[in-house]
């Protein structure tokens, strides 16, 4: 995988269930936070884009849980990006600090331009150096 962005995170105790592992819903928070940081680095602001009538929305998510994350674990969230038609596809993986893959996901985003499904020149321009 050709990752284009990564950030470090840490599991907080309230994110874990009674078994002591991260509750599955929290993985969505981790990967969403990573995408938001990446978008910010690309100069994109959700608030500014919304004001222009452009909203990037999640259309589909697939998730694979590999090795559980536990309280106080530090991990690395990595992201790769492709474009398939009008969909931006974020390939996002979480790795334990020992290198083991903990979680793998594929998140497909589409843009609504003035409420209609379409291409966004702003997103295309922000991502052009990353999409091959």
Please characterize this protein's 3D structure.
The chain is an alpha+beta fold and 132 residues long. Helices cover 23% and strands 42% of the residues. The chain has 3 helices and 6 strands. Strands 1, 2, 3, 4, 5 and 6 form a 6-stranded antiparallel beta sheet that branches. The model has no long low-confidence stretch (mean pLDDT 96).
What is this structure's SSE topology?
Elements: E1 5-10, H1 24-41, H2 46-51, E2 54-65, E3 74-84, E4 87-96, E5 101-113, E6 116-118, H3 121-127
Antiparallel strand pairs: 1-3, 2-5, 3-4, 4-5, 5-6
Short key terms for the protein model shown above:
6 strands; 132 residues; 3 helices; alpha+beta
Outline:
With 132 residues, this protein is of the alpha+beta class.
Briefly note the structural class of the backbone: alpha+beta
Spans of at least 5 consecutive residues whose pLDDT stays below 50 are none
N-to-C CA distance = 13 Å
Biggest sheet overview: 6 strands, antiparallel
Beta strand count? 6
Task: Write down the overall mean pLDDT.
Answer: 96
Strand content: 35-45%
Enumerate how many helices there are, as a single number. 3
Helix content: 10-25%
Radius of gyration: 16 Å
């Amino acid at each position: 995988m050709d990752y284009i962005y990564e950030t470090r995170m840490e599991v907080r105790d309230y994110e874990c269930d009674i078994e002591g592992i991260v509750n599955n819903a929290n993985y969505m928070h981790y990967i969403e936070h990573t995408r938001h940081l990446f978008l910010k680095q690309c100069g994109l602001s959700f608030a500014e884009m919304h004001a222009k009538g452009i909203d990037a929305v999640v259309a589909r998510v697939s998730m694979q849980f590999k090795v559980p994350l536990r309280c106080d674990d530090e991990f690395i969230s990595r992201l790769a990006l492709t474009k398939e038609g009008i969909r931006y596809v974020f390939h996002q993986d979480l790795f334990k600090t020992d290198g083991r893959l903990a979680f793998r996901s594929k998140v497909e985003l589409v843009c609504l331009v003035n409420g209609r499904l379409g291409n966004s020149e702003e997103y295309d321009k922000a991502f052009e150096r990353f999409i091959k």
